[in-house]
Design goal:
27% helix, AtuA_N, 2 domains, 418 residues, 11 helices, four-stranded antiparallel sheet, DUF1446 domain-containing protein, nine-stranded mixed sheet, Alpha-Beta Plaits
Length: 418
């Protein structure tokens, strides 16, 4: 068993910068690169009818970013774990194998299956599966249904000799916990492996824990070269978090502590597939410039259920925005937004289109978002609508263009006609 494992977190979302792995490889002696690409808002890329991505179903950034690094990863023995397999981890693994073969790099690439429950939606519906927040029953027309798997399959793949492990949906922190379970020999019943889940939680969103979302944003330097997390993990569950030298960001108990509180609900019972975490007695101590030591995580046995993210086709939506400037821009912007929606509803009804079932007019700059209402001579009006009928939105997209002739001070329609 190793006495220390060093991880670099190279992706906190789909679309993260492809320059990050280079920063981490140059800035630390890594054992593993770990990437969390599957933010919830990114899960809809897959099986909507007619979408060209359906055949692949994985996040192409993973292959594009790793391909030029495969030789170095092999030479240095750096393992890679990513959930960028999305809905098709097998295809992602195949694409990486093809890239490794073309580069002449001997890498063993594994993928983890088992999270895809779409074919079992009827069975689960009959068993009473419901929305965990609203209690609504599982909808009839399910596009995707994927369970949040735990870390054990990653540890097993690494134990079988994998150099790169690609998986689909999992708990965000599991991509970090998996390598630690493998290297430190942690058993599933070592429930204080919650410490590894804590590390995973702290770095799953990458630079957020280094000041990326820090309340005291003015204290965080170097956003143009933001540092990404490097974590030294130890068998007793303690860890230190830092960043490559010369990069931006800030690593303090406050920056790390804000990420600790991010998205966890009950800090005494943060439920993950591997463990129910108790982080109420976690300590964060400054252990040097831009180094924070983490300790104190505890855990209990996991629940006997899995959470699953499920998508359904629930109609259509359209969003657009434009700028209004000059005296009382906020008032004119709001009036324009309301008039555009009224015209679209009237013309759509005349043409037999369905109704606009949900509408939103937000005047950015007037206090709509903060609640501190005021007027301004610059305002952006953001309009959003939903409808079960795509034709209703086509009418809106067509009719709004003419308002450039009747809204005083209207300019800057973002991306043109929606």
């Amino acid at each position: 068993m190793k006495d220390k494992i060093t991880l670099g977190s190279w992706a906190g979302m789909w679309g993260d910068s492809p320059s990050v792995p280079r920063q981490l490889l140059d800035g630390a002696d890594l054992d593993s690169l770990v990437g969390d690409h599957l933010a919830r808002s990114r899960w809809r890329f897959s099986r909507a009818p007619g979408r060209r991505t359906r055949a692949k179903g994985f996040i192409p950034d993973v292959v594009r970013t790793l391909t030029p690094l495969l030789g170095e990863l092999s030479e240095r023995g750096v393992k890679v774990v990513t959930n960028g397999g999305g809905l098709n981890p097998a295809a992602a693994a195949d694409a990486l194998r093809a890239a490794a073969t073309e580069a002449g790099v001997p890498l063993r690439i594994a993928h983890v299956a088992g999270d895809d429950l779409a074919a079992r939606a009827g069975e689960l519906r009959a068993a009473g599966a419901r929305d965990m927040f609203t209690g609504e029953p599982l909808p009839d027309a399910v596009l995707t249904m994927n369970a949040y798997l735990g870390a054990r399959p990653i540890a097993e793949a690494l134990a079988r000799g994998a150099d790169i492990v690609v998986r689909g949906r999992s708990a965000d922190s599991a991509v970090i916990l998996g390598p630690l379970m493998h290297e430190f020999g942690w058993a599933d019943t070592d429930y204080d492996l919650s410490a590894g889940s804590l590390v995973g939680h702290l770095v799953e969103c990458s630079p957020q824990s280094l000041g990326g979302l820090f309340t005291d944003w003015e204290d965080v330097p170097g956003g143009e070269n933001m540092g990404y997390p490097v974590v030294d993990c130890f068998p007793d569950g303690t860890a230190t978090i830092t960043k490559p030298a010369g990069t931006g960001g800030l690593v303090t108990p406050a920056t790390v502590g804000e990420q600790l509180l991010y998205e966890i609900g009950d800090p005494g019972a943060h439920i993950l597939p591997d463990v129910v975490c108790d982080w109420r007695n976690v300590t964060l101590e400054q252990d040097g410039p831009d180094v924070v030591r983490i300790a104190g995580a505890k855990g209990r046995p996991p629940t006997d259920t899995y959470k699953a993210t499920t998508t359904v086709l629930d109609g259509f939506r359209l969003l657009f925005a434009f700028l209004v400037y000059g005296g009382d821009a906020t008032g004119r912007a709001r009036r324009a937004g309301e008039a555009i929606l009224a015209r679209a509803a009237r013309v759509g009804a005349e043409e037999g289109a369905g109704p606009l079932t949900e509408t939103s007019v937000e005047v950015v700059g007037s206090g709509d978002l903060t609640g501190r209402v005021h007027t301004s001579d610059e305002a952006v009006v953001k309009i959003g609508v939903r409808s079960p009928d795509a034709n209703a939105l086509k009418v809106l997209g067509r009719e709004m263009a003419s308002f450039g002739l009747v809204v005083q001070g209207m300019t800057g329609i973002a991306a043109g006609r929606p």
